[in-house]
Amino acid sequence: xxxxxxxxxxxxxxxxxxxxxxxxxxxxxxxxxxxxxxxxxxxxxxxxxxxxxxxxxxxxxxxxxxxxxxxxxxxxxxxxxxxxxxxxxxxxxxxxxxxxxxxxxxxxxxxxxxxxxxxxxxxxxxxxxxxxxxxxxxxxxxxxxxxxx
Length: 149
Prior knowledge:
- The structure is a single chain.
- This protein has helices at 3-16, 18-21, 55-58, 78-96, 125-132, and strands spanning 32-42, 45-50, 61-65, 68-69, 101-108, 114-120, 123-124, 136-137.
- By secondary structure, it is an alpha+beta fold.
- The protein has a 5-stranded mixed beta barrel.
- The longest helix has 19 residues, at 78-96.
């Protein structure tokens, strides 16, 4: 492939999806409103359609709620799996009953998910989980286990 052809392809990607092209730049890409919640995997991961974004990058896109860590659905022990169900139910109830879901400080994560602060009718999903005891603060790095607590 020639250098000119590579530059043209790179420029096209920048026009189509600037967030992907700048994925290594940890800047925030602002705030976006969720058009529809498509599915909810666990307390901090769900899929949405984003209002005003092309289907290629805004339809059925995975979101990772930032700032907290909740037990995993496929936990390493029964206590983690049970805690994950409780935490997921909290997220499901909050999202299903919402009039407005806003993603703030949007950026790309390492698994091509969108990482964002999630606000449901003005309330932080992070704060909702922390105050209910279904999650703990998380700012990246090594996560603590949920078994043996």
